[in-house]
Amino acid sequence: MTLMRLLLSLLIAALTSVRLAAQSAAVSTNSAGSGASNATDIANRDLRAGDTLRYTISEDPVNSNGIDPMEVFITEIGDAHFPVSRGTDRIVTLVAKGKQLDDLRKELTKRLEEDYYHHATVSLNLYSSGRKNLSGVGPKAIFFGEVKGTVPLLEGERKTITEAIIQMGYSEWADLRKVKISRKSSSGKPEIVKVNVDEIMKKNLLDKDIELKDGDRVDVPAKTFRLGN
Fold this sequence. Notes:
- The chain has 229 residues and is of the alpha+beta class.
- Helix content is 34%, strand content 23%.
- It has helices at 2-44, 101-115, 131-134, 161-168, 197-203; strands at residues 52-57, 70-73, 79-83, 91-95, 122-128, 140-145, 149-152, 179-184, 190-195, 217-220.
């Protein structure tokens, strides 16, 4: 009986070791795959208003072979305005809200190849989510007039008024020469900052571009036309 008990104890110990080893291997596998799982979740989730996308076109003639990504902001109504190239103000406007990244990439590629490129190699990624900013939490700038929407201001990143307007998109009726920023000065008093965004864009006057601050309200007026003398 003593020998039988000894053999039974050894068998139980061996089975326990095997089970523990299997559990350890399963934990390691799950840990290793967590990064891929997170990446899959991001790629498969529907895009939302406030998301910021980064994209490149490898064939863009003025974009260093597509190395330097362009940023595109999904507006509150769900649109995204994609510059055709860094060398032009032409844009492709698509409904992005509710779509997945790959579907949006395919749609963008099709539009670019229909109107601008013989072949377009498009890379599109989700850069940041602006859901907190749109719900009122976090720094942001608000645009109204001919350009409407809320621009989240991410910590550690510089966002200028020209960059924001290009990302959000603007119509031919927007008077970019007379953009006004309403903000509080360092003393706490309200002030108006006038910006000729049209000149900044056409002449590449980066030193005259204005960095957005939390609480800025940006008015992009419509063009006015006078008849007669």
